[in-house]
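Let us practice reading a record.
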Amino acid sequence: DVYKRQLVGVAHAAVPQFTQAWVRPDTHKALTHTGVMVCATPSGASTTATEAAVKITFPTQTAGTDYVINSTAANWTVDTTNLPSGATAWPGIGTATAVSGHTVTFPSTDLTAGVQYCFHTSATNTLTNGSAGASSGIVGATLLTQDSTPATINQTNWSTAIITDDTITVSAVVPPNFTITLDGNSDAFPANLDPGQISSTGGRTVTIVTNAVGGWIAWVKDSQQGLYSTTANYTIPTINYATSPADLTAGTEGYALDVDLTTDAAGGCTVAVDGKYNSASGIGGGGLTANFAPIAACTRPGLPPGTSDGDVLTLIERATIRGGTPAGSDYSDVLTVVGAGNF
């Protein structure tokens, strides 16, 4: 019928088509240099013939600016990298041997029927797309193999398209985020305070996550600047903030906060506990104030981003009393822990 004769080409009606074949440009964008991926699966005709060449004829546009075909065969270099899954590198393929009009001829060696072979042509100094919207049509664009006679072994007609732009620009927004989480809101001393020893609470953890490129800072302030008993109307005082960190001395009243780094998580920034709260002795800490004082920070100077995927601090309160510290079952204190991302 008419459709079938148009598809296979009148002049080559008796030539077997490839089982499958396609020519894929690297870009459909108008007036742009492009390479092409060429893939074909020989039919049974390849069993009794030996391929010596593969020819690509590019379409002639019927309107607008036509394709520009570089006429120097040596510029038509090829590669067989990044082939489609399951494809085999086209045997014998190499730099083009001839260019005539819209037809470029490449060398080939014998192909096996039923195997998909592919190669790719360079986009440098080879093919330039024509103008957008111009029809390339079916007639005139062919892919064929020949033996050394040369006689055509397999042939398939193909077509393509040229458009103004073939790219999609993807945009997204990652909003700023900062979270600070305490694992609990109470931290009692496990036993009665004793002038003969330094007591420590079990501690509470503070977890910080942020995508701030400058990292984060955490602060603490204290409601009483010590442990206060309403019943006794007495405060076990915090140690001096200005001289922190310091070790407590058993039998001498003192109250301090120790901040330990539990987890320096991935993300970019590096956590450092503030020097006033960085006690490594296990019997000391830093003084507490009514104003917010920095306890730790996560930074990455000069190397952003300094984000954090979950840094963890452990806050431990320590205290000791003297023999004459007034008795009371209601000594308490409230620490407020806050933080901020350095966006």
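A brief commentary: Residues 2-8 form the longest helix (7 residues).
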